[in-house]
Design brief:
Layout: E1 2-4, E2 9-16, E3 22-23, H1 38-49, E4 53-54, H2 68-83, E5 92-97, H3 107-115, E6 121-126, H4 131-144, E7 150-157, H5 160-163, H6 177-181, E8 189-196, E9 205-216, E10 225-226, H7 243-248, E11 255-256, H8 261-277, E12 288-291, H9 299-308, E13 318-319, H10 322-325, H11 332-343, E14 351-358, E15 363-373, E16 386-389, E17 392-393, H12 411-429, H13 432-438, H14 444-459, H15 461-471, H16 477-490, H17 493-503, H18 517-530, H19 538-563, H20 572-598, H21 602-623
Helix pairs in contact: 2-3, 8-9, 8-12, 12-21, 14-17, 15-16, 15-18, 16-20, 18-21, 19-20, 19-21
């Protein structure tokens, strides 16, 4: 869902960071090691995240020096000071955070009280990194509708109180890696933005909020970052007889499942591709890219995904302050924008694109800002916030998409395929078999049932590929050779999968195994298409099938290993494809280049086949839990 704005401006962005900067050597005085492995973890994690300095709102004895609400209030005062605005001129306060000083009342109300502000409307948004964007969007909608003229959006985080060594004492100073990890990743800070419909234009420019796009994928993925659940995510801290017992059980440790983080960026980039397709973003026109990430390790991940989509933003246009401000969660984008505006000059016509992924249960948020000249006429008519549904843009005077600016060569094809993939991936994660796995209810018989239906499907893979090779005419000789090589690589994969089936207790002969209705439909479709002359569209089928191996399978494997009581040798097929399908997709891209060079119409066939294959493969997933045979 994309909300567009016509008359909302960011008048100022302020922030506050508590205490003096703390370098990596001085961290131990605040975030002390909790056991013998802590120093090794610290060294490894800091080497990857690139953070050199951060701030804490606690002292070296673990005492809180500045409360959550007071930290947020300092950021508000900094913001109002920059804009020369009085607190009583603001009528709405929206706050976002992972939590405040108290569970109740709402964090925005606590900030309101800390400020001693006159009566005003409040909103509290709880979440992780994108919670602050929710606060901005609510404030912007209120201004766009005319309900308010000036509104404050605030975000603050004080995770250091969760990382004190004393908090791990009830567990005997023992802790799992997921709980260890965030101690060296997160730090404290707060930021605030003043939104208005009457920008002052100080400095000769003003900053217009063009649109905000947010989407949660919690229905697709398990919990990634959490506080208040046990390590296995099965029990809430409220379900224990006492808070002390919840502490001992580890339910009060802040945890991050780092194995899921690559998937967060994969999902986020595909959502970005949709924004490009809708005309909201032209990557070549982004002048400043403010990208929030928790670790510098993910910079090449984001770059690679953008490159694969053909929608790269040059690295010199990126801005991030992670290395010297740390990861301050929901406050990060506020602090980042505040420092960006302090240290960089912007010119009328430039755009500032903000990207905020959230790992809590996988969400993605985006904002587009545009710099205007201070003397440019302000919009006179009020518009209700314009929403863009999945099907396209509605309610806008004219669609912003500019066909003349569409990328050339393979970029249009890759963008269309990425859209198809994004929808398919989401549907797969909601299928009965994956939902059972995500919710921790998977058993050996479920895995055995799954592999029994999967073996005969995989067995056909090299067959329809070789059938396609014989259907290719002379202009596609190079393509035929490439597909033949790929078929050769895949021809014995089914035997590995059959051995996994046997390791799970399967005792049927391989010829007795049957595909489910979805697998049968997929197999029939692929063989029928392979028998036609020059079945170039099959490259779209390979994109979906190999993509499943590269982008979905690696996420399933850790959950399977944890829930299914089988040796590692029972998961050889999944492990193999998770490691090798990336190379297969590289070969696929070469095949597409050959096909496009031979026939420019190949793209349409590839896209159409990818969509049909995605629907049929989805059907195969949907039927897995029903039976082990037709």
């Amino acid at each position: 869902m994309t909300t567009c704005f016509n008359r909302v401006y960011i008048e100022a962005a302020g922030y506050h960071l508590p205490g003096e900067p703390v370098d990596n050597d001085a961290m131990d005085a605040y975030i002390a090691p909790i056991n013998k492995i802590s120093p090794r973890m610290k060294k490894r994690i800091l080497a990857e995240n690139g953070i050199r300095l951060r701030h804490y709102a606690i002292d070296k004895d673990g005492n809180t020096v500045m409360s959550h609400a007071s930290l947020a209030a300092r950021a508000v005062h900094d913001c109002l000071g920059k804009s020369q605005t009085r607190l009583d001129e603001v009528s709405l306060l929206a706050a976002g955070s992972s939590g405040g000083d108290a569970i109740l009342p709402g964090f925005a109300n606590m900030i309101h009280g800390e400020l001693g502000a006159p009566p005003l409307q409040t909103l509290s948004s709880q979440g992780v990194c994108a919670a602050g964007v929710t606060a901005i969007e609510f404030a912007a909608q209120a201004i766009e509708l005319g309900a308010h003229s000036q509104a404050l959006a605030v975000a603050a985080e004080v995770p250091s109180r969760m990382f004190k060594r004393s908090r791990f004492a009830p567990r005997g100073y023992d802790s799992d890696f997921d709980a260890h990890f965030l101690r060296w990743m997160l730090s404290d800070g707060a930021g605030a933005m003043l939104l208005t419909d009457k920008p002052s234009g100080r400095g000769g420019v003003r900053l217009k909020l063009k649109w905000i796009h947010q989407k949660s994928f919690a229905g697709d993925y398990p919990v990634c970052m959490q506080l208040g659940l046990t390590e296995d995510r099965s029990t809430s801290y409220l379900d224990f007889p006492s808070s002390g017992e919840a502490e001992v059980a580890g339910a009060m440790s802040l945890r991050q499942d780092i194995r899921m983080l690559p998937h967060l960026f994969d999902v986020s980039i595909h959502e970005y591709v949709k924004l490009v397709a809708a005309g909201h973003v032209h990557s070549e026109r982004v002048d400043h890219f403010l990208c929030h990430y928790s670790s510098e390790r993910f910079i090449p991940v984001v770059e690679e995904l953008l490159d694969k989509a053909g929608l790269s933003i040059p690295k010199e246009r990126w801005y991030n302050n992670l290395s010297f401000r740390g990861n301050t969660g929901a406050a990060s984008i506020f602090i980042m924008l505040g420092e960006f505006l302090e240290t960089r000059s912007v010119k009328p016509g430039e755009t500032i694109f903000c990207f905020i992924p959230e790992s809590g249960r996988i969400s993605a948020a985006y904002m587009m800002l545009e710099v205007e000249a201070a003397d440019e006429p302000l919009p006179q008519e009020r518009y209700a916030p314009v929403r863009v549904e999945e099907g396209g843009i509605t309610n806008l005077p004219s669609a912003p998409h500019d066909p003349a600016a569409a990328p050339a060569h393979l970029q249009k094809l890759l963008t269309a395929l990425a859209e198809t993939w994004h929808d398919y991936r989401s549907s797969v994660w909601r299928s009965p078999v994956i939902r059972k796995l995500v919710t921790g209810r998977f058993a050996v018989e479920d895995y055995r049932n799954w592999t029994s239906q999967w073996v005969p499907q995989v067995r056909e893979g090299s067959k329809w590929m070789r059938e396609a090779v014989t259907s290719l005419t002379r202009p596609y000789e190079d393509l035929a050779a490439l597909i033949e090589t790929h078929a050769g690589d895949e021809q014995n994969d089914f035997q590995i999968l059959y051995q996994d089936y046997q390791a799970a207790g399967g005792d049927k002969p391989i010829d007795a195994l049957r595909r489910n209705p979805g697998g049968e439909a997929l197999n029939a479709y692929l063989h029928a298409l392979a028998a036609t002359e020059n079945p170039i569209g099959l490259l779209g089928a390979i994109y979906i099938i190999e993509g499943t191996g590269q982008r979905i399978v690696p996420m399933l494997l850790p959950m399977l290993c944890k829930q299914v009581d089988l040796p590692a040798s029972a998961f050889r097929f999944l492990e193999y494809h998770g490691a090798n399908d990336e190379h297969h997709l590289t070969r696929w891209l070469m095949a597409v280049e050959i096909a496009m060079e031979a026939d420019v119409r190949a793209a349409d066939a590839i896209i159409a086949t990818a969509r049909r294959t995605a629907r049929l493969y989805q059907m195969q997933f949907d039927h897995i839990m029903e039976s082990d045979s037709l």
